[in-house]
Specification:
- The structure is a single chain.
- By secondary structure, this protein is mainly alpha-helical.
- The protein has five helices and no strands.
- α1 runs parallel beside α5 and α3 packs parallel to α4.
């Protein structure tokens, strides 16, 4: 169930896409700056982490560092976190999984 504007900050599909597009444009800098000594912070993890933090900032939420959840990389943790934010904070239902897929395609070009 999506949130309403009266009980917590929400994000529209268009706002989500704008945030994702901004992060995708910053992808080269994000990938260059990632901590390469942290083997769990691969390219996809770094991009999803940046998207997650940007969405939390847009929503006025404090940043939360995630763990690998037992996986080899952070990718799954940040992917689930982005999906959860979109699901819980969407003004109206939208295909956030496709939006994230589109983001990753653009960011990894």
């Amino acid at each position: 169930m999506s949130a309403t504007a009266t009980d917590k900050t929400t994000i529209s599909r268009d706002q989500f896409k704008r945030v994702a597009e901004k992060v995708a444009k910053e992808a080269p800098a994000i990938l260059k700056a990632r901590d390469k000594s942290d083997k769990a912070m691969d390219k996809k993890s770094a991009l999803l982490r940046a998207l997650y933090f940007s969405l939390r900032e847009k929503l006025g939420l404090p940043a939360e560092k995630l763990t690998t959840m037992g996986f080899k990389t952070y990718e799954r943790a940040y992917l689930e976190a982005v999906y959860t934010l979109a699901y819980e904070r969407a003004k109206e239902p939208f295909d956030y999984e496709k939006a994230v897929d589109d983001f990753m395609s653009k960011a990894l070009r």
